[in-house]
Design brief:
Elements: H1 9-15, E1 27-28, E2 35-36, E3 47-48, E4 51-52
Antiparallel strand pairs: 1-2, 3-4
């Protein structure tokens, strides 16, 4: 079936207004100043919330 009338630009854009990408939120690690995702262990130094929780390959 075909639409009865053409969909206007405004109606089409209002319908698609919520279809957009949001940028990923990042934080800076307080220990090594590396950019990481919030609430995650830093992949660079292995620190989380002021203490080391993962031993990295550099420290072995």
């Amino acid at each position: 079936m075909l639409p009865k009338r053409r969909v206007s630009k405004g109606r089409k854009r209002r319908r698609r207004a919520h279809q957009f990408l949001t940028p990923a939120v990042t934080v800076v690690c307080k220990h090594c100043n590396h950019v990481t995702l919030p609430h995650r262990v830093c992949g660079n130094c292995g620190w989380y919330q002021g203490r080391q929780v993962v031993v990295t390959a550099e420290e072995k």
